[in-house]
Automatic annotation (TrEMBL):
Keywords: Elongation factor, Protein biosynthesis. GO terms for cellular component: cytosol; eukaryotic translation elongation factor 1 complex; ribosome. InterPro entries: eEF-1beta-like_sf, EF-1_beta_acid_region_euk, EF1B_bsu/dsu, EF1B_bsu/dsu_GNE, Glutathione-S-Trfase_C_sf, Transl_elong_EF1B/ribsomal_bS6. Residues 87-109 have a biased composition (Acidic residues). This is Elongation factor 1-beta. The keyword Transport does not apply. It comes from Anaeromyces robustus. Residues 70-109 are annotated as: Disordered. It comes from the Eukaryota.
Length: 219
């Protein structure tokens, strides 16, 4: 189960869990993703938790649409590896067996599940195809240790492009009292090119010495 997703241990568990999964439950976004997303509080550090950061940025890209995800929203602790729900289901099955076969009930439940899944897929297919997106981490280096990093970051975040969403950021020591700005963003591949974005950042010539792409992951 997931617990304290704002702690390093909790984020590590989430990152490991998402190493071979796109979503918390199943193959479609659901209320399980919304619950765990809210429990994280903020975007995980992509350098330490790349899988969790990729998933977080993907869920964030849905915005208010996430409220309409299917499923029942439960506490974040209800999800994750070795969740107790499976054991509870087994106990229920044992109790049901005392009163005979539930094959008809199971069959109807499967039909209802298949019907709901078909309805959700039909609804999703009717929506416009989601644009391909990428999670990008940029390293923005200043001229020296006297460069006002707050103003530098404000200048970077002021860059607005259709298909660009700025995320979390932090200052990283690079030596001699100089710190670089490491900032995350989500881009729509068809609308925003990393080269064009880097060129716009470089136009902040009073603050910026160079821009490097530290990480680039497809969502």
């Amino acid at each position: 189960m997931f617990s304290n997703l704002t702690s390093p241990a909790g984020l590590k568990a989430l990152d490991d869990f998402l190493s071979d999964k796109s979503y918390i439950e199943g193959v479609e976004p659901s209320q399980a993703d919304v619950s765990v997303f809210e429990a994280c509080g903020s975007a995980p550090d992509a350098a330490k938790y790349p899988n969790a950061a990729r998933w977080y940025a993907h869920i964030a890209s849905f915005g208010d649409e996430a409220k309409s995800f299917p499923g029942e929203k439960k506490p974040a602790a209800s999800y994750g590896p070795a969740a107790p729900a499976a054991a509870d289901d087994d106990d229920d099955d044992d109790d049901d067996d005392l009163f005979g076969s539930d094959s008809e009930t199971d069959e109807e439940a499967e039909k209802l599940k298949a019907q709901r899944l078909a309805e959700y897929r039909a609804k999703k297919a009717a929506k416009p195809q989601e644009a391909a997106k990428s999670l990008v981490i940029l390293d923005v280096k200043p001229w020296d240790d006297e460069t006002p990093m707050k103003e530098l970051e404000e200048g970077v975040r002021a860059i607005a492009m259709d298909g660009l969403l700025w995320g979390s950021s932090k200052l990283v020591d690079i030596g001699y009292g100089i710190k670089k700005l490491q900032i995350t963003c989500v881009i729509e591949d068809a609308k925003v090119g990393t080269e064009d974005l880097s060129d716009q950042i470089m136009e902040l010539e009073d603050y910026v010495q160079s821009v490097d792409i530290a990480s680039f992951n497809k969502l």
